[in-house]
Specification:
mainly alpha; 4 strands
Length: 87
């Protein structure tokens, strides 16, 4: 569960990190308030949300079990625990 959450957090922070790297590369003041104006933060937040939305769609489309598979829930068979799986 931690991996999908960290993936989304990294995707959200990526535009902000790239902008900070850009500011370092252009010798601008990274920690100045003028470099992080509300307009810039709005654009960066929009880009971050777009990245997260695209990642949600891609994860939903390309992960998980195949379409024709059926789920067999976990059960006890001959006194032994058999974990759930898809067939």
């Amino acid at each position: 569960m931690i991996r999908p959450v960290l993936t989304e957090v990294v995707l959200f922070l990526a535009p902000f990190a790239l902008y900070a790297i850009f500011l370092f590369a252009t010798k601008a003041e990274v920690f100045e308030r003028a470099s992080w104006s509300p307009r810039v933060l709005l654009w960066l937040s929009g880009a971050a949300l777009a990245l997260m939305f695209v990642s949600f769609v891609l994860l939903a489309q390309f992960s998980g079990a195949p379409v024709d598979s059926t789920y067999e829930p976990a059960h006890v068979e001959d006194g032994k625990f058999v974990p759930g799986r898809t067939k």
